[in-house]
Amino acid sequence: MGQGNNIRLGVNIDHVATVRQARRAREPEPLAAAVLATLGGADGITVHLREDRRHIQDRDVFLLREMVPTRLNLEMSIAEEIVAIALKVRPDEATLVPERRQELTTEGGLDIVVQESAVRAVVERLHAAGIAVSVFIDPEPAQVEAARRVGADAVELQTASYSEARGTAAITAELTRLRQAAAQAAQLGLHVHMGHGLNYVNVAPIAQIPQVEELNIGHSIVARAVLVGMERAVREMKDILLRCRSGQ
Ligand code: PXP
Questions:
Q1: Atom number in ligand 1 closest to CA 198
Q2: Is residue 5 a part of any domain in this protein?
Q3: Three-state secondary-structure class, residue 57
Q4: Span 98-133, pLDDT tens digits
């Protein structure tokens, strides 16, 4: 599974909505960003409908469901209110993430080991609606095993620790954890995704991990898009991924 040359780029456009919400204004419109990201080569659009609605709003998710021609990946907590919306929206994929009100962004993976039955119940409800389920977890053997037990289709291994590591030894150690977790997940029949903190400089070793089928990248792409435009920012990232997979 996932050993081919293909690697999907899911572009997370939450930050576009963050700029809009800074003024409670109408622009920039996340839908427009999704269209331009798709033109730039995005294989999917990812958004996180947070319980506090700090960026993406309910109407965005419903409109994106109508408009995104590729794949819509909805990042979501397992809170009942959000699960009910996901069941109405029916994204192509739901990625279950932890959520804390005070955090700047998602911090660390979902601890499936400690809330296995609650996560399993949500996975079952999403599956019944035809939605594929990914779980955002730390690259830990116990979490990968739990992901399999709850019936997830995919794991998204968090790359924040890798992105934040400083010095060759620390970076190598984080890469080793990710490589091992990716191999373990693929062996268990899980699709392997990764994301968080990836940028134009640090993405290559991650994209070269053969089991990785999808990367979800937001901050670095939207940050570049502010300066060079969304279509170009996405194309530049997609080109890096393609080069990594073609061995150039
Ligand atoms: N994957 C998950 C599960 C996330 O929560 C986020 C941030 O919303 C991302 C990927 C993208 O992270 P970044 O914005 O750092 O690229």
A1: 16
A2: no
A3: coil
A4: 987 666 766 689 999 999 999 999 999 999 999 999
What single-letter amino acid sits at 31?
L
Whole-number Å distance between alpha carbons of 132 and 15:
24
Q: What torsion do the CA atoms of 213, 120, 161, 172 make, to the nearest 10 degrees?
A: -60
Is 55 catalytic? The answer is: no
* 216 Cα–ligand 1 center, Å: 6
Mark whether 48 is an active-site residue. yes
Domain count, the chain: 1
CATH number at residue 73: 3.20.20.70
Which member of 196, 213, 214, 231 is catalytic? Answer: 196
Entry pTM: 0.96
Does 128 reside within a domain? yes
> Is 1 a member of any domain?
no
What DSSP state is assigned to residue 192? E
Give me the domain span that covers residue 21: 10-246
Task: Calculate the alpha carbon distances from 24 to 19, 32, 135 in Å.
Answer: 9, 17, 31
* Ligand 1: centre distance to CA 158 (Å): 8
**pLDDT computed for residue 1 by the predictor:** 43
Among 49, 70, 16, residue whose Cα is nearest residue 233: 16
Q: Which two tokens stand for residue 172?
A: 């190598």
4 located within any domain = no
Q: Which two tokens stand for residue 144?
A: 């990968």
Average model confidence (pLDDT) across the chain: 95
